[in-house]
User: What shape does this take?
Amino acid sequence: IISMRGDILMELSEAIVLRIKQLLKEKNMKTYDLSIKSGVPRSTISLFLSRETKTIRLENLLYLCEGFGIELKDFFNDEVFKNVEAKNWLKNPED
Assistant: This one.
C-alpha cells in the first residue's frame, strides 16, 4: 500500500507485531518469558503474533511493555511506526 506521498504504508497491527518481535529478539526473550513478566496469557500473545487475531487491547500492550521493561511511549518511538495506516477503517477518502 502506498500513500499519496509515495511512502509505503504498513497496517498498524502489523507494525505492532514487528515491534514486539523486535523487542523479543533485543531482550533475548521468548513469548513464554514475556507472558510470565507481563501477566498476559501466552495464548493471547501467540494469537496476535501469528496474526490469527488482528487486534490487541491497549491494556495488554501496556502490560507487554511492562514485561519488556519499557514505557508505552518507548514502544511506539520506533521507525516501524513512521508510515502506518489503520486498514479496514472507514474514513473519508478526501482526508
Remarks:
- The CA atoms of residues 2 and 40 lie 34 Å apart.
- The chain is about 50% helix and 5% strand.
- The first strand starts at residue 10 and ends at 11.
- The first helix runs from residue 12 to 26.
